[in-house]
Design brief:
eight-stranded mixed β-sheet; about 70% helix; single chain; alpha+beta; about 10% strand; about 675 residues
């Protein structure tokens, strides 16, 4: 037999089996498209320039979609080869050698995989370009988002899916090699064995999910959240798969043992039907659950960030102008205040408010009342930042009087009251005095909360009895840790009168002036100059959320559809036999409907549970974007859950009709 004959036979096989090949090819194209779209965002310059952390998220998302693609294509391929086992067995009976059958399968795979990869990349580029254009129009961003074609991304996509399709081909060839012709002829009719329940897998699923949830619930600062988020996600993904594979079998077998539940016509059919092929269903259900969780998280968080843009801007910039002086002392701070006053008066503007304070900070962990220094510069694990401020600077800002004697200090914690009688800093012990006057305590606490608005880890403020006392603590740290940086800082923040245009001009001119002051090492930020970029970045994040939400929803719909098609073909002959022995069509529909409902909405329920447990770590990650309004985050999540539930219900209605039409 010639290679040309094998090629003709392969093409003829694809045409004659188009009923099952068309859904398989469409599914393959869709998964290639999803992967290409996600991977293309990793190299997108518009997104990378606005938030470098998003690139890391997209890289992680590409890996997850790659894993999904492998699982999904192998799942759909197993359905395809199962339907064709009889045909392949007949080839062997008619005298075709196994190596020839394997070569025919290779040509079929080459045609379908190459076509799927090519069309998927083209589709991904077209869809990506269209979505970017549509979102540019809807969001009306100042700078248009570009979606260029990347040969590198196309190459990565082709390579990844070449490996996936090769894996599927090897599986198909193994089915031919290790089966005799009689087994192949009867392959389609050979039912799957009832899966065994595994206590070990069930316990592992609970451990993985519990560990992921525990990380989310116990993570207490943003730095820890950034490091542990991906670990928690991986644990939840593993736990979800194991829970569907093992937990669902436990539940179904328990229902089967309950005679009152099991020995009813519709329950008997649905429970037994789900149980015997639960392994295949479990993978699909786990995929849907994880994709649904991704939709909820991606859309709700970015929507909340966009809605809260103005409020979060004020959190970052409580004052219109802010200068941070490095290696600063009291003289530097007062001299710079005079510069600000003079430059403001030259432009016929008035200072409406100004605050200035000196501070120093050290990072580490608390062990009782002792603060143990850890160097964040050297990559040590830290969960607390101690900020030391002389009391006179806070007294001037808050117009209050603070009574301290000797080396006494006042300690205020950002998360809870500090109730220890002493605090140990740089191996020196300092007595702690409480602020007894409630009004004074409130004024100081509010001001400190405003000053420390963007700290991403737990913060403890120590007010010393003067600048000399603050410097004495710092000198002790310098002596103990000479390789670390402990020089002082000062912050000057102020508002001015004037229109928006005048404030923008003022900020632009002041930028040139202050950076020309060679005697100072400083950083200057102005709300009016950064506001446009802030809204632009948040608009880009909303785009990302909508884009990913649509992508994951499409993936969930695709998995759901193919799952219904494959199960419809598997169930058709079974229900035809049941009809012949007297089971009416109404009973069949009732039993299958309960099965579909159970298996459709369980992933959605688990996705909601995942999101609820993920909320603590998500809320801390959102602090990076200045989002502190937890009520808005909760409302956003609830809204997206309801919206996705409605969309998922529509998917359920459409795909269930496909299932019933096949079964009939």
């Amino acid at each position: 037999m010639t290679k040309q004959l094998f090629a003709k036979l392969a093409i003829k096989n694809i045409r004659s089996n188009k009923q099952i090949y068309i859904p398989y090819i469409i599914s393959s194209i869709a998964t290639v498209t999803m992967f290409y779209l996600m991977t293309s965002l990793v190299t997108n310059d518009y997104l990378a320039e606005r938030a470098t952390t998003i690139v890391v998220l997209f890289t992680f998302g590409s890996i997850i979609i790659g894993i999904f693609s492998l699982i999904f294509i192998l799942y759909t391929n197993s359905f395809l080869i199962k339907r064709r086992k009889k045909e392949i067995g007949l080839y062997a009976i008619l005298g075709m050698k196994k190596k020839h059958v394997a070569f025919v399968l290779f040509i079929e795979s080459l045609i379908t995989s190459a076509g799927s990869i090519l069309i998927g990349i083209i589709s991904g580029q077209i869809i990506g370009r269209f979505v970017f254009l549509a979102l540019n129009y809807m969001l009306k961003l100042p700078v248009s988002m570009e979606y260029p074609f990347s040969i590198g991304v196309a190459g990565i996509t082709a390579a990844v899916f070449a490996i996936i399709f090769l894996t599927a081909l090897l599986y198909n060839i193994s089915q031919v090699t290790f089966s005799n012709p009689i087994q192949l002829v009867r392959g389609k009719q050979t039912g799957e064995k009832e899966p065994k329940s595994s206590i070990l897998l069930f316990l592992l699923s609970l451990i993985a999910l519990g560990s992921g949830y525990w990380i989310s619930l116990t993570t207490d600062n943003v730095l820890s959240a950034l490091g542990l988020f991906f670990v928690a996600v991986l644990l939840v993904i593993i736990g979800t798969y194991l829970l569907f594979i093992s937990g669902s079998i436990f539940i179904l077998k328990a229902m089967k043992k309950n005679k009152k539940i099991y020995y009813r016509p519709n329950a008997f059919i649905s429970i037994s039907g789900m149980l015997y092929r639960m392994k295949q269903n479990a993978v699909g259900l786990a995929n849907i659950s994880i994709l649904a969780t991704m939709v909820i998280v991606a859309v709700s968080t970015t929507a909340a960030i966009f809605v809260d843009s103005e409020a979060s801007m004020k959190v970052q910039f409580p004052y219109e102008n802010e200068v941070s002086l490095f290696e600063a002392n009291f003289e530097d701070m007062t001299n710079f205040q005079e510069i600000v006053v003079n430059e403001t008066e030259k432009r016929d503007l008035a200072l409406e408010d100004m605050v200035a304070y000196r501070y120093n900070s050290v990072t580490g962990v608390f062990e009782g009342d002792e603060f143990v220094f850890r160097s964040s510069l050297q990559g040590d694990v830290v969960d607390t930042q101690v900020i030391i401020i002389p009391k006179e600077d806070i007294e001037k800002i808050t117009d209050t009087s603070i009574d301290l004697e000797g080396n006494e200090v006042i300690v205020l914690n950002s998360e809870s009251e500090y109730n220890q009688p002493t605090i140990k800093l740089a191996e020196q012990e300092y007595p702690v005095r409480q602020i007894n006057d409630s009004d004074t305590h409130t004024k100081i606490s509010n001001q400190l909360e405003n000053m420390l608005r963007m700290n991403v880890i737990g913060t403890t403020v120590v007010l010393t009895n003067g600048a000399d006392e603050m410097q004495a603590i710092i000198e002790d740290y310098k002596e103990l840790y000479p390789d670390d940086y402990f020089d002082g800082f000062a912050s000057v923040e102020w508002d001015t009168s004037g229109t928006t245009e005048e404030k923008i001009t003022y900020a632009e001119e002041l930028t040139d002036i202050v950076y020309d002051l060679e005697e100072y090492s400083l950083g200057y930020r102005a709300r009016e100059l950064e506001q446009e970029e802030w809204y632009q970045m948040n608009g880009g994040l909303l785009f990302v959320g909508i884009f990913l939400g649509g992508l994951f929803t499409f993936g969930a719909a695709l998995i759901t559809y193919f799952k219904q098609v494959s199960e419809g073909y598997d169930d058709r002959e079974k229900f035809q036999i049941m009809q012949k022995v007297g089971l009416d069509e109404k009973m069949i529909q009732k039993s299958t409907r309960s099965q579909i409902v159970w298996m459709f909405f369980l992933p959605l329920l688990l996705a909601a549970v995942h999101t609820a447990f993920a909320y603590p770590i998500i809320s801390k990650l959102l602090l990076v974007f200045g989002l502190v309004n937890e009520g808005l985050i909760v409302l956003s999540i609830i809204g997206v859950v309801l919206g996705f539930s409605l969309l998922y219900w529509i998917i359920y209605r459409v795909t269930s009709r496909v299932y019933f039409s096949i079964v009939k």
